Amino acid sequence: MHVSESMAAGMSVMLISENAELTTVRAAEVLNVSRPFLIKLLDQKAIPHRMVGKHRRIRVEDVIAYKDAIDREREQILDQLTREAQDYDMGYGTR
């Protein structure tokens, strides 16, 4: 149902097998970041990966887990900023 609603709203939908592995190019596309930024994340061990020869492979579930964690963190920060703006009466009062 979620896929149908997203498509009806004009959003793109990507279907990937859960046990699939992504190249760095594809993982960067999924996260909407540059490939060099993704490489830094991999080097910092923020996202698990494995080497196949000289190439990195990242499991889809690890990319999605990282994306979910970042999204949750951003949401918490936005909630905190909203609370602070309300506390200081910066025009973001509740209605």
Order of helices and strands: HEHHEEH
What is the global morphology? flat
Mean of pLDDT: 89
Q: Please bin the fraction of helical residues.
A: 40-55%
Q: How many helical stretches?
A: 4
**How many strand units?**
3
Nutshell version of this structure?
This protein has 95 residues and is mainly α. The protein is 55% helix and 11% strand.
Describe the structure in your own words.
With 95 residues, this protein is mainly alpha-helical. The chain has 4 helices and 3 strands; from the N terminus they run αβααββα. A 3-stranded antiparallel beta sheet has the order 1-3-2. Strand 2 (50-52) and strand 3 form a beta hairpin. Helix 2 crosses helix 3 (35-43). The longest helix has 28 residues, at 60-87. It is flat.
Describe the secondary-structure layout.
Elements: H1 2-8, E1 21-22, H2 24-31, H3 35-43, E2 50-52, E3 55-59, H4 60-87
Helix pairs in contact: 2-3
